[in-house]
């Protein structure tokens, strides 16, 4: 039984085990071939895609539930999840198809995460599939999931000049152009190459390596790596504010 149908089974038959009328939605960002991607799933009985979801057991915290749902959906748990908003409009419905839950209103707690594109377990079966989409080329989405995604991006953009991003998205060694493309994708604007490089190096969590990229047809470019300890310290200090 896949994760969604397992969750639906719990919803209908094990109401005493989890908090009623509360969902978690994880906005999962990846980076591939110069593009920011968002992970979506689709049920074969619907024509719209949706964000990975999860329910909250009464025996676990909201954060524990978010990490459990993340692992159940994509097989990854050793990453940072950031809670960014609660969605509770009066017209939020879990499903307009299932008569058993037609009139129930669901509050959704939004989390976002940056993950390594290559480490996500992709799957497709007769009931459900999961796929990456470009951040600017999303398909038709279920319910208010467009709003959830846009809110996650808005929250990231509010703090992007003060906190480091990119560690989870990029390979161990990367070019400054690759890092800049990530910032430009979220901000929706082009950044000055020299100013960006100067700012990134001044923040103290990037190492300049004595190595250059060796991609065929591309001029060799200096490689960089993250100072993981300083990167995480800077990130955690900001998240505690």
Question: Any overview of this molecule?
Answer:
This protein folds into two domains: 3-150, Nucleoside Triphosphate Pyrophosphohydrolase; 174-239, Winged helix-like DNA-binding domain superfamily/Winged helix DNA-binding domain (Arc Repressor Mutant, subunit A). It is α+β, with helices and mostly antiparallel strands and 241 residues long. The chain is built from six helices and ten strands. The longest helix is centred in the middle third of the chain and has 15 residues, at 145-159. A hairpin with a 5-residue loop joins β2 and β3 (49-50). Strands 1, 2, 3, 4, 5, 6 and 7 form a seven-stranded mixed β-sheet that branches. A three-stranded antiparallel β-sheet has the order 8-10-9. It has helices at 3-13, 62-74, 145-159, 176-187, 193-202, 228-239, and strands at residues 22-32, 35-43, 49-50, 53-54, 81-87, 107-114, 128-134, 174-175, 206-212, 222-226.
Short description, anyone?
With 241 residues, the chain is of the alpha+beta class.
Descriptive terms for the model:
241 residues; alpha+beta; Nucleoside Triphosphate Pyrophosphohydrolase; Arc Repressor Mutant, subunit A; seven-stranded mixed β-sheet; three-stranded antiparallel β-sheet; 6 helices; 30% helix; NUDIX hydrolase
- Compute the CA-based radius of gyration: 19 Å
Percent of residues in beta strands: 15-25%
Report how far apart the termini are: 41 Å
Helicity, as a percent range: 25-40%
CATH class of the largest domain: Alpha Beta
Order of helices and strands: HEEEEHEEEHEHHEEH
Keywords: Hydrolase
Domain Nudix hydrolase: 1-155
Organism: Apibacter adventoris
Pfam families: NUDIX, WHD_NrtR
């Amino acid at each position: 039984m896949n994760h969604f149908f397992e969750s639906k089974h719990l919803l209908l038959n094990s109401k005493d085990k989890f908090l009623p009328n509360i969902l978690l939605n994880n906005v999962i960002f990846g980076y591939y071939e110069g593009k920011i991607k968002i992970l979506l799933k689709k049920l074969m009985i619907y024509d719209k895609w949706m964000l990975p979801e999860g329910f909250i057991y009464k025996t676990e915290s909201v954060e524990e539930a978010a990490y459990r749902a993340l692992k159940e959906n994509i097989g990854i748990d050793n990453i940072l999840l950031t809670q960014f908003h609660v969605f509770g409009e009066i017209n939020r419905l879990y499903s307009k198809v299932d008569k058993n839950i037609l009139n129930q209103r669901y509050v959704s707690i939004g989390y976002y995460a940056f993950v390594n594109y290559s480490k996500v377990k992709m799957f497709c079966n007769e009931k459900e599939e999961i796929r990456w989409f470009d951040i600017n080329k999303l398909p038709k989405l279920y319910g208010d999931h467009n709003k959830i995604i846009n809110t996650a991006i808005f929250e990231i953009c509010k703090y992007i000049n003060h906190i480091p991003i990119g560690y989870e998205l990029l390979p161990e060694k990367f070019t400054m152009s690759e890092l800049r493309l990530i910032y430009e994708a979220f901000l929706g604007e082009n950044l000055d190459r020299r100013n960006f490089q100067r700012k990134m190096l001044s923040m103290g969590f990037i190492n300049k390596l004595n190595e250059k990229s060796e991609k065929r047809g591309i001029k060799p470019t200096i490689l960089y790596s993250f100072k993981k300890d300083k990167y995480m310290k800077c990130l955690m200090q900001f998240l505690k504010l």
